[in-house]
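Continuing the series of single-chain predictions for the mutant panel. This is the parent chain; the variants come on the following pages.
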Amino acid sequence: MYKYGCLNPISKVGTDNFTADYVLTEDINEAEAILVRSAAMHDMEFSDKLLTVARAGAGVNNIPLDKCAEKGIVVFNSPGANANGVRELVIASMILASRDIIGGNRWVQENKGDENISKTMEKAKSKFAGTEIKGKKLGVIGLGNIGVIVANAASALGMDVVGCDPFISVNNALHLSRKVQLVNDRADIFKTCDFITVHVPLIDDTKEMINKDTIATMKDGVIILNFARDLLINENDVADALESGKIRCYATDFPTPKIANTKNVIAFPHLGASTEESEDNCAVMVVNQVMDYIENGNIKNSVNFPAVDMGKPQFAGRLAVLHRNLPNIISKLTTACGEAGINIENFISQSRGEYAYSLLDIDKANAADAAAKIAGGEGVLKVRVIK
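Parent structure:
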């Protein structure tokens, strides 16, 4: 019997996928798996029982990845599960930014007591005239799960779409519309596009990539959309550009006190993935990943350990070893099995930065002796007997 805990409400559509071998516990210290959405985990202490943390969403800023890795705790997320929810909000925001729909609606609310509203609105509506998105040029920076489908949707709506992602995956490249033009440098997007939308992770290269210098290269009246991370922009520089009119509108899912009090901002309280469908999809994905890891040792969509998948165990036993990416450590694993009289039937080891993961299918079940010998080795973080 395995125990899991939830730090946030998790969709029942997902948790219902847990088999009868899994039970919910209120005591997080008893859990082998923790499911989380937005709860902050950086100050938490993790018990030795904890095997995995699963984020029902894409961002993992609320999880101490290195701390988890050092304790041999695999952190999963659910990339792409909420992509459609974000795509729809981005497309809606482009239209809201192009046409002053919000201002027009506000006018109606302010004048709803006017008995002649049907006449006065004909004079007032010119203040809310906007532009269409068809035929405009959209730059998509970051062609991951969300960026690709945003680019495809915008292209289908008649926009001229340019994408930039030097690290686009083969899978995403195959799903990208042939109408989308690719460029190698995001500077090309800054210089030429009417709309710019960013869908990249927050790393040193992308932090505050929209700033006074890059804004200066943009077209006058550019519309910028940020539904990825708040720190991708320098908020003071964006606010100044909004005040001057250089940026026509800034649409974001991450309001700050500065941005929320700046004119020509359309901001939402982090609603991108706040749909029933997105929450269900994320929960289903992470629950399946947790069960596959606990029962079979397979890792898919981890953010702190490499992907390794050997399917279900086909031999008498299976050992799972989370370890540092050090020289000679593989030979030490195989030596430990040999000294325990165990033959390795199948073996996969993958690394990711300073961490690595090895799965060993062996001819002996419940090989606690070999596991104990491996666990005492240098650089070994956690060893499990899967079967």
